[in-house]
Amino acid sequence: MKAAASSSSLAMPKIRPSRILAWTLLFIGGVIMVTPLLFMLSTSLKDASQVYDLRVIPEAPTLDNYIEILGDGRFTRWLINSTIVAMIVTLSNVFFDSLVGYTLAKFRFRGRYIVFIAILSTLMIPTEMLVLPWYLMASQFGWLDSYWGIMFPGMMTAFGTFLMKQFFEGVPDDFLEAARIDGLNEFTIWWKIAMPLVTPALSALAIFTFLGNWTAFFWPLIVTTSAELYTLPVGLSSFAVEQSIQWEKIMTGASIATLPTLIIFLFLQRYIVRGVMLAGLKG
Amino acid sequence: MSAVSHREAASGGLWSRMSLGQKQVIWAWSFLAVPLVFYVVIRFWPTFQAFYLSTTDWTITKPAAFVGLENYWRLFEDPLFWQVFRNTFLYLILGTPISLLISFVVAYYLDRVRFMHSFIRALYFLPFLTTAAAMAWVWRWFYQPVPIGVINDLLSSLGVPQQPFLRSTTQALPAVLAPAVWAGLGFQIIIFLAGLRAIPVTYYEAARIDGLSEGAILRKITLPLLKPTLVFLVVFSSIGFLRIFDQVYNINTNDPGGPLNSTKPLVLMIYQTAFSSYEMGYAAAQTVVLFVILLVISLVQLRLMRDR
């Protein structure tokens, strides 16, 4: 209230027609943005006879498509696969990227700069260039068609390491020094003292890694050959091909692949938006 | 103290005789040990291997033999490569400016909106959280002819003739690009919003006192101060469009990259060369070309944006 009183002309501008127009246009644009998602969801709730009726609100909504597709078992399997893969890769990145970021930010030792530049330089290498050697490696070690085969290329990332290094540099040395005097070992100092101070960055890293792995298509498509090991995007793609033109089934599959991240977003919107901003500005 | 005495016991007194600095060095390298193995084995070694493989005639069935630069000569004489090269740059040249223009305009006005701000922001952001492979199927459905295709239905109700979209060699590429632009907007808007917010309010206040118009403030204050954000987004989205794959592959599974290769990007050509034709050496040469393109584009853009 104080701010409003002191600068009332700035805080409470008159509602001008141009502002109402801008708001309306933004709103319409936003509705257009979610239209594909609305159509996807609405069609997933229709039976085959209603698909040609393009009304957004289904006349007789039904969960039959979901019951049929989830009852088939394959989608449940792919959901589990995607969840396991995305979770493990995320945990690994949160652990190792921040460990390396912390070491590079807070320790003074010969070779530190070289290690940093070496890790950073891998950002210039596109995944596509590494895919063939990874495939060769995976086939030699028998990693094709396994969780480890899907996961191993992404267990650590230069992006995450760089992001975490930036944030650990903002942690005051005094905190760490005090812990050292208290006799804590370096691992405990990192885990118990430094990590809690960078939770916003950790959540940003976790969100990005999870989303990236949940939606990943190219490498899982290459490394998996049996349907039991498909991740959700690869499974959905093969499922949609075999459904040919049964759009209500395809839209149900697409909804199953999309809804988990959308629902998580509804609960964590504040953190996710802040995380994207943090990663974008510092990364 | 217990941790220290435990350490002394474990390393037989050697540890206790070390200086704090020496202990720090040992801690640092022990923290880095596993990650360094990872980066060497999973990043550096494969990088060199990719360069090496690009000079071999490796296929799945026969062992690799050195063929020099033959794969590269073959690639540069391959008309498909130049078609794919053209497509890849069309994705970049259309996608980056269009998506950045839309997202900047939205962010610029959304920044001033207070009423239902986070709700409207969420509407724009939601597509970013979707799976590209899934969304390609939704858009594929939209592009179908009547009576099933949503867009053609809308067009026919407006009296506009039917459009072939994915069946046309000229319309297919923009049609494939649309979902990629759509899904990326939310991210760009959020980054622009963060950049706009980082500009100190005092600059605007000073400009208003000096009597600058809104347009002049945009040109003289907002855009110049937004340059770091802009550089980041241009590089980030350019790389994204140059590496487009998921949408293209899924939007036309009968003939990925079709019709007549008119939507095929470089990554799809790489995938098909490696995993449909099994010409791994040839595919490796294509990945090296992709690497060089990405490198040149990022360096040129960084230089251009820095000089201006």
Task: Describe the protein's architecture and organization.
The complex is a heterodimer of chains A (about 280) and B (about 300). Chain A is mainly alpha-helical. Chain A folds into two domains: about 15-60, no CATH class; about 70-280, MetI-like fold (Orthogonal Bundle). Chain A is built from 15 helices and no strands. In chain A, α5 packs across α9, α5 (about 75-105) runs antiparallel to α12 and α12 (about 200-215) packs antiparallel against α15. The two termini of chain A are about 35 Å apart. Chain B has two domains: about 1-55; about 70-305, Orthogonal Bundle (MetI-like fold), CATH 1.10.3720. Helices cover about 70% and strands about 0% of the residues of chain B. The termini of chain B are far apart. Chain B contains 15 helices and no strands. With about 300 residues, chain B is mainly alpha-helical.
Order of helices and strands of chain B: HHHHHHHHHHHHHHH
Largest interface, by Cβ-Cβ below 8 angstroms: which chains and how many residues each? A-B, 90 and 95 residues
The fraction of residues in strands of chain A falls at under 5%
> What is the helix content of chain A?
over 70%
Query: CATH superfamily membership of the largest domain in chain B, which one?
Result: MetI-like
Strand content of chain B: under 5%
Mean pLDDT across residues of chain B: 89
Shape of chain B: flat
Q: How large is the radius of gyration of chain A?
A: 24 Å
Q: Write down the domain tally of chain B.
A: 2
- The count of strands of chain A amounts to 0
Q: What is the CATH architecture assignment of the largest domain in chain A?
A: Orthogonal Bundle
Number of helices of chain B: 15
Helix fraction of chain B? over 70%
Question: Quaternary status of these chains?
Answer: heterodimer
